[in-house]
């Protein structure tokens, strides 16, 4: 019964995302609305982590299974995808390295600022 209640809470938040998607004229997927709602609810305490934790862990554990239909869809559309495979692969590789570089640079800036702030705090004390 505990899992059912937790799944229903997650489904209710997802439904709120679907409703926002239907009524707001923004090009944002319903799942993003739902995640933002869940984040805000958890942050504000409207929903406690314990109210959704076990169901969330279960959904994360079975996530790889959810990619099977997408993989089958790619395999069945191979003839259509074959012509764009090279450009998509190149774009994917470039994007991966760009994101890695940007993440590394931002992380370095944050680490340097936090060390500088920590050193200034130590010197003032």
Automatic annotation (TrEMBL):
Q: Which UniProt keywords apply?
A: Cell membrane, Membrane, Transmembrane, Transmembrane helix
Q: Where in the cell is it found?
A: Cell membrane
The portions of this protein that span the membrane are 30-47, 59-78, 84-106
Note the topology in the membrane.
Multi-pass membrane protein
Gene Ontology, cellular component aspect: plasma membrane
Q: Which PANTHER family match?
A: HOLIN-LIKE PROTEIN CIDA, HOLIN-LIKE PROTEIN CIDA-RELATED
Protein name as annotated: LrgA-like family protein
Q: What organism is recorded for this protein?
A: Butyrivibrio proteoclasticus (strain ATCC 51982 / DSM 14932 / B316) (Clostridium proteoclasticum)
């Amino acid at each position: 019964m505990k899992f059912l209640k937790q799944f229903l809470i997650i489904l209710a938040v997802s439904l709120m995302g679907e409703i926002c998607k239907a009524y707001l004229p923004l090009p944002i997927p319903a799942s993003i609305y739902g995640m933002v709602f869940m984040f805000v609810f958890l942050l504000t305490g409207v929903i406690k982590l314990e109210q959704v934790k076990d169901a969330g862990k279960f959904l994360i554990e079975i996530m790889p299974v959810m990619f099977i239909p997408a993989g089958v869809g790619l395999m069945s559309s191979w003839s259509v995808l074959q012509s764009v495979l090279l450009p998509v692969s190149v774009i994917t590789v470039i994007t991966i390295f760009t994101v890695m570089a940007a993440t590394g640079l931002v992380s370095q800036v944050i680490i340097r600022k936090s060390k500088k702030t920590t050193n200034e705090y130590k010197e003032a004390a």
